[in-house]
Amino acid sequence: MPTCPAPDHPQMAYQVVEKRWALEALESVLEERQSSLAALEARAAQLRGARARQEARVHAQQASNAARRAAYEELRAHAALREAALRRLQEEARDLLGWLLQRKARAAAERNLRNERRERVKQARVSQELKKAAKRTVSISESTNTLGDGITEGTEAEALALAAEPVSQESEAGAKWSRSFRSASATSLTLSRCVDVVKGLLDFKKRRGHSIGGAPEQRYQSIPVCVAARLPTWAQDVLDAHLSEVNAVRFGPNSSLLATGGADCLIHLWNVVGGRLEANQTLEGASGSITSVDLDPSVRGLCPSGGSQVLAATYNQAAQLWTVGEAQSKETLSGHTDKVTAAKFKVTRHQAVTGSRDRTVKEWDLGRAYCSRTINVLSYCNDVVCGDHVIISGHNDQKIRFWDSRGPCCTQVIPVQGRVTSLSLSQDQLHLLSCSRDNTLKVIDLRVSNIRQVFRADGFRCSSDWTKAVFSPDRRYALAGSGDGALYIWDVDTGKLESSLRGPHCAAINAVAWCGSGNHVVSVDQARKVVLWH
Predict the structure, then answer these.
(1) Predicted confidence (pLDDT) per residue in 327-382, tens digit
(2) Which of 21, 228, 341, 483 is geometrically suited to a Cys-Cys bond with 463, CB 3.0 to 4.6 A?
(3) Whether the predicted model's global pTM rises above the 0.90 cut
(4) Which residue intervals correspond to the WD repeats (predicted)?
């Protein structure tokens, strides 16, 4: 029987060793992978925790967003309710304003009716007295110059009526009554001729004594004319007069009273004493920023230093009237639908004119606070001036329009370059000064309706739509304030720049005024300053 070869012991031992090494290598790899797996499991646990925290944050943010969304919806609902309430209040305010305007119009109509009834009763009474007087005869002595004792009460009333008539024909009629008769045939004369004279006088008074509004026409007394204005050279007094910018300034008729109006809804009255401005009075009650101010040109006013009334235009769609000496507003002239930019007294007493951005110019009867006429224009009105029987308005469409107070239509239109910001009428009413946004001043000769002079200067800038320029009282100079805070003065006859004054003003000058005596100039600016120049 054959025998098997013996195993190769060294080779098997070598394989066993290799296997053992391979096993050890695998075990080390296994350990590394197990440690890596443990690390990955720990990382996975951390990520699961972070995810849980992020999910919690997301849920919290969603809850917060839901709460904010609910609050937003609640605020929207509340805002809708407030808007609805605001609309209701605005409608109520419009209704209330309409009711107020209707009530004022009704009150004015009732007052007119009462006045007409009173006038008719008065005329009827006078007519009856005249009829009674006409039935009696009067014996007039040839040697006497007055009526005898036979004059009745009606005749006395007749004589009083004649004495009260302020026209030149009164003196003539009185002379006819008082002079002696040359003929003896006049010793027996009835009063029929006297009645005819009185009726003629009454008819003449009725023809001449009623204005557009129906009130008797009373003209202001004339103001003395300045012979030669003095050119200002230096600032005498500088005041921070208002709480905000000052828009308007105006001298009284005798040069010692000054009015300023500003965006703080106040009007300050000042006395010019010894080259200084002394506070006189503060007028309150304006319902908006003051855009224009004017003083009553009467020299017989309540105030010993000037006019008795102050008229101002405001941003609150109205003009207001004050009496000097009374702090609160006397009357409110309401009827415009946009801010009022100009308000001026007319030459006839108790009448005024206003201009507005609602494209209208209105005439007012101040005695009844009633609008007697409304003029519709195609453009914003920035300023107005008044002559004897003419109203002149300057507009945003670069035109100056002329209106006859006795007629309904525009009588003339003069085009100028640039939006018109102000108008100034000379005292002789023959020349008109306009200021416009093209940085020029123009002198218009009203006798030929042509532009006579155009004033320009390096540095002069018309800074706003309410910049005001004026003539000197003798019409020799034209004065305006610039956006750079300087005063510019031109010679009207030569057209040359006479002088430019700088110093106190550090902001744009809104308005200037030259007193009637020609000695002082006042300028106001957007930085609350009022400067008196000498």
Answers:
(1) 888 899 999 999 999 999 998 888 999 999 999 999 999 988 889 999 999 999 99
(2) 483
(3) no
(4) 239-280, 333-374, 471-500
CA-closest candidate to residue 353, choices 329, 375, 368, 380: 375
Q: If DSSP codes are grouped into helix, strand and coil, which group holds residue 498? A: strand
147 & 276 share domain: no
Q: Beta strand pairing status for 276-283 and 529-533?
A: unpaired
Q: What's the rounded Cα separation, in Å, for the pair 8 and 194?
A: 180
CA nearest 354: which of 328, 327, 329, 372? 372
- Same domain, residue pair 146 and 273: no
Range of the domain at 178: 135-208
The total of structural domains in the chain comes to: 3
The two beta strands, 390-395 and 399-404, are antiparallel
Element holding 521 (H helix, E strand): strand 521-525
What secondary structure letter does DSSP report for 334?
E
7 CB burial (10 A radius; 0-12, 13-18, 19+):
exposed
- Give the largest CA-CA distance in the chain: 214
Q: Are residues 159 and 52 in the same domain?
A: no
Residue the block writes with tokens 């639908």:
337
- Give long-range contacts, CB 8 A cutoff, 24+ apart: 122-126: 126/157, 126/161, 126/202
Q: How far apart are CA 364 and CA 271, in angstroms?
A: 29
For the purposes of burial, counting CB atoms within 10 Å of the CB of 489, is it exposed (0-12), middle (13-18) or buried (19 or more)? Answer: buried
Report the helix count and the strand count for the chain, using DSSP H and E.
4, 30
Give the H or E element holding residue 112. helix 9-134
Bridge-partner residues for 524, per DSSP?
511, 530
Choose the final residue of a domain: 64, 80, 113: 113
- pLDDT digit string, tens, across residues 302-326: 444 445 899 999 999 999 999 998 8
Does residue 182 share a domain with residue 146?
A: yes
Contacts of 165 (CB under 8 A, 6+ apart): 201, 205
Helices 9-134 and 153-164, axial angle in degrees (round to 10): 130
CB atoms within 10 A of CB 173: 18
Per the CB < 8 A criterion, the answer to whether 348 and 217 are in contact is yes
Could you give the CA distance from residue 456 to residue 502 in angstroms, rounded to a whole number?
A: 17
Specify whether 379 is located in the same domain as 514: yes
pLDDT per residue over 5-43, tens digit each? Answer: 555 577 888 888 888 899 999 999 999 999 999 999 999
Query: Would you say residue 358 lies in a domain?
Result: yes
What is the chain's length?
534
Single residue among 208, 227, 260 that ends a domain in this structure: 208
**Same domain? 181 vs 60:** no
Which residue matches tokens 């009844």? 368
Tokens 């008795």 -> residue? 308
